[in-house]
Design a protein that fits this description.
Structural class: alpha+beta
Order of helices and strands: HHHEHEEEEEEEHEHEHHHHHH
Number of helices: 12
Radius of gyration: 29 Å
Largest sheet: 6 strands, mixed, barrel
Number of strands: 10
Helix content: 40-55%
Strand content: 15-25%
Strand order of the largest sheet: 2-3-8-5-7-6
């Protein structure tokens, strides 16, 4: 078997033109598939940035909420009702809304304001400058130092700005797990200051963050919240709900799916046609190998080896090229959201195996029918 595979390897690499063409086709297909799915994965991660950054185990919200940006305020009595549910360790309100900030230069910038529960500051970000207790100072805000930080003209501690005719003062700079999706800077302040400074409806609690006493209490809490007419989701369930919304209720998921399928078809057509041409050009050699005693299944092993060998090399090159481009893009464009995940890699691997299988099947059908008599007669 080793000798047969060695012959298959030499037949493959000695025809440098066809070998390179096969590699280019598969590499390009893998590159496109990984780039498209990585972009989608990055968008889904950033769409859940508020959930990831706050880190609450259970989120209570209006059932109509589809994304963190579409929060629907709830009456204050819901906070007290949730706190009274058996199994709830504590529950606090969270404000999440948009505002327009006037910078010192006179320019205006849209921001997202997160209002943390005053006594507990539950969900507060990790500070890289300043002290968290300063958030209780007059007009105090904490600015997230992420890709959108420069849109606020790179503020420092003590920088002032206006927000809805109120003065704001930067008392801290923070870092978070994930940047936002829509390129809008994020400010943190206390809950009461947020609802005072920013116009809102008579209901002000965007979400209620719940800390259960134990994991076993979560299903009971969810049922009781449902009785109240609201929805309680774990962090993972909320992230999944957001993901499902972007996948199935917007054009984003369909567009990415179409581009991924097109990438697969491109790779399959290039590699399939090239591999078939390679088989035709080496048909006499396969016939000679069969004439000296090679069995049909050994020829099948040869073709499978050639297709799999080419597919795996192209797969590695495609993954490497995509990873390199994403790394360069993210270093130069902080807003670039693409990220490679294990799911992207496995999806590309499975599709590459399908390409290799179909390509080898095309070659096997031709080689298996060859008769040594026809070769030598020619």
């Amino acid at each position: 078997m080793y000798g047969i595979l060695k012959i298959a390897y030499k037949l493959l690499v000695n025809d440098k033109g066809k070998f390179v063409a096969l590699l280019v086709g598969i590499t390009f297909a893998v590159f496109l598939m990984v780039m498209m799915t990585s972009m989608f994965a990055g968008i889904l991660t950033r769409s859940s940035s508020t959930i990831l950054n706050v880190g609450a185990k259970v989120w209570v919200m209006d059932p109509a909420v589809t994304t963190p940006a579409s929060s629907i305020p709830m009456p204050d009595y819901v906070v007290d009702a949730v706190r009274s549910i058996k199994g709830v360790k504590y529950a606090v309100p969270l404000y999440s809304g948009g505002a327009l900030v006037k910078l010192r230069s006179g320019a205006y910038q849209a921001v997202t304001v997160i209002g943390l529960d005053d006594p507990s500051l539950f969900g507060r970000p990790e500070l890289v400058a300043g002290q968290i207790k300063d958030i209780y100072a007059e007009n105090a805000f904490i600015v997230v130092e992420d890709a959108e930080f420069q849109k606020l003209e790179n503020p420092k501690l003590g920088t002032t700005f206006e927000i809805n005719d109120h003065q704001g003062v930067v008392v801290g700079l923070a870092k978070v797990v994930s940047a936002g999706l829509f390129g809008i800077p994020t400010l943190y302040t206390t809950y009461n200051r947020a609802i005072t400074y920013i116009p809102s409806t008579r209901f002000t609690a965007s979400y209620i963050l719940v800390e259960p006493k134990s994991q076993q209490d979560i299903p009971y809490i969810q049922r009781q919240v449902q009785v109240l007419g609201y929805e309680a989701l774990t962090k993972d369930e909320f992230i999944q709900k957001i993901s499902d919304f972007y996948k199935y209720k917007t054009g984003l998921g369909i567009n990415v799916l179409v581009m991924t399928v097109i990438s697969f078809i491109v790779g399959l057509s290039i590699s399939g046609q090239t591999f078939y041409t390679f088989i035709l050009e080496n048909l006499e050699k396969f016939g000679a190998i069969k004439a000296i005693g090679a069995k049909g299944r050994q020829l099948v092993y040869m073709i499978l080896f050639q297709a799999l060998f080419t597919a795996l090399i192209g797969y590695g090159l495609g993954i490497g090229l995509a990873a390199l481009l994403i790394t360069i893009a993210r270093s130069r464009m902080p807003d670039y959201a693409a990220m490679i995940t294990f799911s992207n890699i496995w999806l590309a691997f499975i599709m590459v195996l399908v390409i290799a299988g179909i390509s080898s099947y095309i070659g096997i059908r031709k080689v298996i029918r060859i008769e040594p008599f026809d070769i030598f007669r020619g």
